């Protein structure tokens, strides 16, 4: 049935040149709350319905954000509405967001990083495996042998046996991580220099091997470590990975599984000793929501501290610095 009083579109009055409301754009904004793309689009459709019900041909950005929060609370719950509203303050930050996601092989780092990038509108996602590949082009196997092994069998490339009583798997992993961290540090510095937000994920994102304190003025860095505590669930991740065409064979991970678990215990201990959040990945949606909650919390704290230090002076908006 047609709706004779329904207006063809609603213009956002305080945006130049008076752009009409877009469900696609609103859905992308709503995803910062942690909603999936599908549910975010449902919220955007509900917002459009509410706008049409009002019968007004225009709406301000402030009114639209308030309506979006209202619809989010009705459709998804208070948690998502709160995240959405808090992110509006975060948008005023004049520094890039750098999210570092660490964890052992097979815990779901790459999936979380990809989904997080989509939710937050960050276009740069880099794996530390890529950094290691670049470093392999610069350093020969003879010079840096551990660069040419997997993170969980770097002990096979140690030049000298480790000290008695030490875990050779961890010694090899630490040596490889120390080498890759040189490239990781350069990547973090570049993000700060360019003012571009980025997500860096990989087994080599190990707390204690990079320094974020000295960079706190040039970026908002949020490190997390992802774990899968249950052995069987961790194994199942490798089985799922082997289904994909072109995926690395599951047999190699199965053979190195005990080493992978030892590496995970080490990374987790480093996270706990350096006060870095540990996210348990039992369910992708819940793990992703936990990471988003942490990012929004840290970003909101930073926005509040900058606002206080500015003593009432407005903080410049960056827009492009998010890398969107």
Describe the structure.
This protein has 324 residues and is of the alpha/beta class. It has two domains: 11-90; 97-322, Rossmann fold. It has eleven helices and seven strands. The protein has helices spanning 23-30, 37-54, 61-75, 78-90, 109-120, 128-138, 168-194, 231-243, 250-255, 257-273, 284-309, and strands at 11-12, 58-59, 97-102, 125-127, 198-202, 220-227, 277-280. The strands form two sheets. Strands 4-5-3-6-7 form a five-stranded parallel beta sheet, sandwiched between helices. The chain has a two-stranded parallel ribbon with strand order 1-2. Helix 1 (23-30) crosses helix 2, helix 2 (37-54) packs across helix 3 and helix 6 crosses helix 7 (168-194). The protein is elongated, with a radius of gyration of 23 Å. The two termini are 39 Å apart.
Task: Offer a few descriptive terms.
single chain; 324 residues; Rossmann fold; 5-stranded parallel beta sheet; two-stranded parallel ribbon; 7 strands; elongated
How do the helices and strands line up, and which of them pair or pack?
Layout: E1 11-12, H1 23-30, H2 37-54, E2 58-59, H3 61-75, H4 78-90, E3 97-102, H5 109-120, E4 125-127, H6 128-138, H7 168-194, E5 198-202, E6 220-227, H8 231-243, H9 250-255, H10 257-273, E7 277-280, H11 284-309
Parallel strand pairs: 1-2, 3-5, 3-6, 4-5, 6-7
Helix pairs in contact: 1-2, 2-3, 3-4, 4-11, 5-11, 6-7
